[in-house]
Amino acid sequence: MFFLYGEKELEINLRNRVFNVIRVLEYEAGARELSGKDYEYAMWIFRNQGTILPSKVLTEGKTVKVIEGPLLDEIGKIIRLDKHKKKAWVEIDFCGQSRIISLSVECLTEV
């Protein structure tokens, strides 16, 4: 799959001039310009120069750093992980005492 990006509308007969095109995306009423979530996804790919890297997988026992929220920059160890609910229970040291905090995995990064 590939997307063409341009400042002007592309020619309708472009499909005939490009080798191995199976079909051209077309919305209802013949619109060919991406919109909504499709546009957002295509622009995300464009901003990343077409490279989609694999996600880092968090697992129990890994050391993580909080990258968002009131615990920003705190470091801890994942004690328990619920991948379906995207929650992690992280052991963090507060003033010499170990505490287990429930956090969203989206605010954590592997150290």
Automatic annotation (TrEMBL):
Name of the molecule in the record: KOW domain-containing protein
Domain of life: Bacteria
Xref: Pfam families: KOW
Positions of the KOW domain: 60-93
InterPro entries linked to this entry: KOW, Rib_uL2_dom2, Translation_prot_SH3-like_sf
Alphabetical list of CDD domains matching this protein: KOW_NusG
